[in-house]
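Appendix C reproduces, verbatim, an entry submitted by the partner laboratory led by Prof. M.T., so that reviewers can inspect both the input and the predicted structure.
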Amino acid sequence: MRWIFLFVCTNLRLLFVVSLLANLALGVLNFVVQPIWRAAAVTSALALAEVKSEAEERRAVAKARSKEKAKARLRRVAVAVPVVGLAAATAFEYAAYQRWQAENPTQTFDDYAAAVLASSQEVAGEVAGELTEVFPEWATPDVNALMHAMEAGLQNLRHFAEAVPTEAPE
């Protein structure tokens, strides 16, 4: 009987030591692995947030581009209609002049006209080249005639800008 009692006590002690070592090992493992799991979770959350923000930014850029293309398309259609086109072209150019005037308050209309003509002369050849790719040669405007028309349009815009009051009456 003593032998059975000794066997049971030894096995209980052994079971206690094994469970103590197993719990100690699990505790150390939890202490070591838990920060790694948390770091991995934070890293994956950050990566997911970055991917979402990049996707939202791409969607916003694509939406802005399509909006600008739609505006340009509508402007081209508005300018193509003869009577409405002249008014639309004048309104678009006047809005551009007002934005330029807000950015350059010390400069005059002549400075604006010179800047517009200079930048237009730089790209006139490219625009004429693009037009010859799309239209037959007989339908493509002459660059010199185009620049002359632009100068005339700026002179008309000068008269329009001088006629429109800059401040609202109080």
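Residues 1-78 form one domain. Additional entries are available on request from the coordinating office.
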